[in-house]
Design brief:
It is a single chain. By secondary structure, the chain is of the alpha/beta class. It folds into two domains: 141 residues, NAD(P)-binding Rossmann-like Domain (Rossmann fold), CATH 3.40.50; 139 residues, 2-Layer Sandwich (Dihydrodipicolinate Reductase, domain 2), CATH 3.30.360.10. Helices cover 37% and strands 26% of the residues. The protein is built from eight helices and eleven strands. The strands form two sheets. It has a six-stranded parallel beta sheet with strand order 3-2-1-4-5-6, with helices on both faces. The protein has a five-stranded mixed beta sheet with strand order 8-7-9-11-10. Helix 1 packs across helix 8. It is globular, with a radius of gyration of 19 Å. The mean pLDDT is 95.
Amino acid sequence: MTKKIKAAIIGPGNIGMDLMFKLMRSELIEVDTVAGIIPESEGLALAREHGINASSEGINAILGNKEIKIVFDATGAKPHLKHAPLLKQDGKIAIDLTPASVGPYCVPAVTVAEQLDQVNVNMVTCAGQATVPIVYAINEAADVKYSEIVATISSRSAGPGTRQNIDEFTETTATAVMNVGGADKAKAIIILNPAEPPIMMRNTVYCKVANPNEEAIIEAISNRVKKIQKYVPGYRLKVPPIIDGDKVTTVIEVEGEGAYLPKYSGNLDIITAAAVAFAEEMARKLLNEQQSGR
């Protein structure tokens, strides 16, 4: 019986490498291949140093390899639109860390069980992973009519992929706040802060609610934060819920674990941690199927 599910990473940038280091600790997943398109890529060299297959042939290095069951796409929204049908045709499960929104939005603190039969899931955005669970919690307790989130990240932790996908970032985040978080309407804003030393990721969540039950709101948020902290230990309430009439405001801070990326890169850490959390649930399901002979 296979002890681990084999996976591949497309995109050997900051997100791809942070994923690689997280997955190297996994008891359920083995990184088989890291693929990119630049032969002299630092990420590919780093993968080789750790004994992982590295290729500059992009997705072609993965297609046809039947041992690889899960593929993390850490490229960009436009590339993933091309990759998604190819991975599906090849029988692979795609975990999309771009704002392409091909598959359903996946936020492990809210959604998991209902998505384990999907062949493509979208990890929304870093802001989505940080704020959607809070809006979901507030909506559970108070019925969110409108939500506005502002994600502030260090400009140092915003790489080319983030900068090239700003429009998709805001649209995807706002849509997830509605479709997964439950808000009737939503807006998302991202701010790249050039401050030195670099700031931690901070997310302001503002909601207008129908039923401002203070006790229920505080309890719901607290329970959801604990769920997120199981896979993102650096996630915390910076400002506890402030409830003023029908308005609820809170601030979330995310500190990265610092294994590969700096601790101020909590925006990258939260999306890779969420991707690993979901992938391990998927791997557990696949291993159980293998064991039962399905």
